[in-house]
C-alpha cells in the first residue's frame, strides 16, 4: 500500500503544482493572443494568485487532514482543479480566466497538495524523505509534459480544446487518485493550531519566515517569464520558447531530489543557502544571456535551484531551533508556508510591471529578481548560525555524557 500511495501522490502533485509550473506557457499565449489587451503585470496576477492559493490553502488543509477529512479534501480538490480547467477553456476575458484558472484551479491544487505530502509521512518512516522527494517530483513531471502538449495542440485544435485535453488528463488522474487514496479514511487526531504566537518572539524563526518570503518573492519571476524572454528578448521560435519551460521544469527534478538524498550528510539549510546565493547569481547573470545555447544551460541551472527552493524548507523547519517541539512542527510549517505564499503572489506582477515584454526589455525585472533573491539568502544567515550553534552545543553535551 505504501508504494501505491507514493505513486498516486506523485500523480496528485503532477496535477497540482505541475499545472502551476506550466503557467509560463499560458502567460506567453495570453500576452500574444487571448489577453493581448492586458498588461504582462495584470496577466501575471492569474498565475501568482494560483501559486499563492496552492500554498496558502494548504495551511488550512493541514488541520483538516489531522481531523480525518482526507477523502473529502481529495475529492473536492480534484473536482475544483478539473472544473477550473474546463471553465478556463471557455474563458474569453481577463476576469473569466482569473476566476477559473487563478482562483478555482488554485483552490483545488491547494486543498490537495499539502495533505498528499502529509499522507506520505503517515505511511513511510525509514525512507520518508526519499518518498516525499519522489512525490514532489510529480510536479516537475507535469511541468515538463504540459507545456509541450500546450504548444503542440494549441495551433492545431485551438486554445479551448487544448485546455480541455489537459483537463481530461487531470480528470483521468483524479478519478484514479480518488479511488486509490480515497480508501485511506485518515485517522482523526487533535487538529493543530494555525498560529504559534511565541514564534514571533524568536529571532531565528522570524528571519526564517522573512527568508522564505523573499525567496518565493523571486521564485516565480523566471518561471513565469522564461517563455516570454526566449520569444521576445532572444527572438527564438515559439516552439523553442515553450520547450525552455519544459527544460527548466526538467532541471528541477534534480533540485527536488538532491536535498533529500544529501539530507543525512549535509544540513538542508546549507543546501538552501547555497542554492539561494547561486540563484541570485543566476538571476543577475540572466541579464547577460543573449545566445540560445547559454539560455538552455541557464534554464537547466535555474530549474535545479527552483527545485531546491521548493523542497529544502520543509525539513529545515522541523529543526529544534525553528520548531522547539514536535507538537508545534505542523504549526511552524504552516506559518512558514504562509510567509512564502505571500511572497509568491506579488513577485511576478511587480516584475511584469518592470518589464517591457513588447520590446523584449527585461533588465529592470531581472535586477529586481536578483536583489530580492539575495535578500532572502541574507535572511538565511541568522537561522543557519542559530542551528549550527544549537547542534554544536548538543554535540558537546553528548560527548561530555559519554
From TrEMBL:
Alphabetically ordered keywords of this record: Membrane, Transmembrane, Transmembrane helix
Chief location category: membrane
All copies of domain Major facilitator superfamily (MFS) profile, residue ranges: 1-394
Membrane-topology annotation of the record: Multi-pass membrane protein
SUPFAM superfamilies: MFS general substrate transporter
Name of a matching Pfam family: MFS_1
GO cellular component: membrane
Location in or out of the cell: Membrane
Transmembrane stretches, start-end: 42-65, 72-92, 98-123, 130-149, 161-182, 203-228, 240-262, 269-289, 295-312, 333-355, 367-387
GO molecular function: transmembrane transporter activity
Keyword presence, Repeat: no
Family as reported in the entry's similarity comment: Belongs to the major facilitator superfamily. Monocarboxylate porter (TC 2.A.1.13) family.
PANTHER family for this protein: MAJOR FACILITATOR SUPERFAMILY (MFS) PROFILE DOMAIN-CONTAINING PROTEIN-RELATED (PTHR11360:SF252), MONOCARBOXYLATE TRANSPORTER (PTHR11360)
Name listed for the protein in its UniProt record: Major facilitator superfamily (MFS) profile domain-containing protein
Record organism: Exophiala aquamarina CBS 119918
Amino acid at each position: 500500500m505504501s508504494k501505491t500511495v507514493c505513486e498516486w501522490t506523485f500523480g496528485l502533485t503532477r496535477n497540482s503544482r505541475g499545472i502551476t509550473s506550466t503557467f509560463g506557457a499560458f502567460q506567453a499565449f495570453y500576452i500574444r493572443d487571448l489577453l493581448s489587451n492586458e498588461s504582462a503585470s495584470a496577466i501575471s496576477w492569474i498565475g501568482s494568485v494560483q501559486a499563492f492559493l496552492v500554498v496558502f490553502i494548504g495551511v488550512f488543509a493541514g488541520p483538516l487532514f489531522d481531523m480525518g477529512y482526507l477523502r473529502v479534501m481529495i475529492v473536492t480538490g480534484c473536482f475544483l482543479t478539473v472544473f477550473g480547467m474546463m471553465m478556463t477553456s471557455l474563458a474569453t476575458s481577463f476576469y473569466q480566466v482569473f476566476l477559473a484558472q487563478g482562483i478555482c484551479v488554485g483552490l483545488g491544487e491547494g486543498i490537495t497538495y499539502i495533505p498528499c505530502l502529509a499522507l506520505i509521512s503517515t505511511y513511510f518512516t525509514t525512507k520518508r524523505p526519499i518518498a516525499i522527494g519522489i512525490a514532489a517530483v510529480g510536479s516537475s513531471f507535469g511541468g515538463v509534459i504540459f507545456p509541450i502538449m500546450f504548444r503542440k495542440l494549441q495551433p492545431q485544435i485551438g486554445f479551448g480544446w487544448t485546455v480541455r485535453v489537459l483537463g481530461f488528463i487531470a480528470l483521468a488522474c483524479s478519478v484514479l487518485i480518488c479511488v486509490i487514496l480515497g480508501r485511506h479514511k485518515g485517522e482523526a487526531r487533535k487538529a493543530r493550531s494555525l498560529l504559534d504566537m511565541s514564534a514571533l518572539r524568536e529571532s531565528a524563526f522570524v528571519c526564517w519566515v522573512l527568508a522564505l518570503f523573499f525567496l518565493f518573492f523571486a521564485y516565480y519571476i523566471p518561471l513565469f517569464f522564461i517563455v516570454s524572454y526566449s520569444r521576445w528578448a532572444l527572438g527564438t521560435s515559439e516552439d523553442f520558447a515553450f520547450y525552455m519551460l519544459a527544460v527548466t521544469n526538467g532541471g528541477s527534478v534534480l533540485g527536488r531530489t538532491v536535498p533529500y538524498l544529501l539530507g543525512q550528510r549535509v544540513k538542508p539549510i546549507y543546501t538552501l543557502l547555497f542554492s539561494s546565493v547561486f540563484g541570485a547569481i543566476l538571476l543577475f547573470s540572466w541579464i547577460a544571456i543573449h545566445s540560445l545555447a547559454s539560455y538552455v544551460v541557464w534554464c537547466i541551472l535555474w530549474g535545479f535551484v527552483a527545485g531546491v527552493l521548493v523542497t529544502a524548507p520543509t525539513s529545515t523547519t522541523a529543526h529544534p531551533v525553528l520548531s522547539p517541539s514536535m507538537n508545534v512542527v505542523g504549526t511552524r510549517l504552516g506559518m512558514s508556508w504562509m510567509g512564502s505564499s505571500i511572497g509568491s503572489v506579488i513577485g511576478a506582477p511587480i516584475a511584469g510591471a518592470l518589464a517591457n515584454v513588447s520590446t523584449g526589455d527585461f533588465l529592470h525585472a531581472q535586477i529586481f529578481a536578483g536583489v530580492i533573491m539575495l535578500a532572502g539568502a541574507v535572511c538565511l544567515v541568522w537561522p543557519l548560525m542559530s542551528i549550527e550553534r544549537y547542534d554544536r552545543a548538543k554535540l558537546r553535551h553528548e560527548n561530555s555524557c559519554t
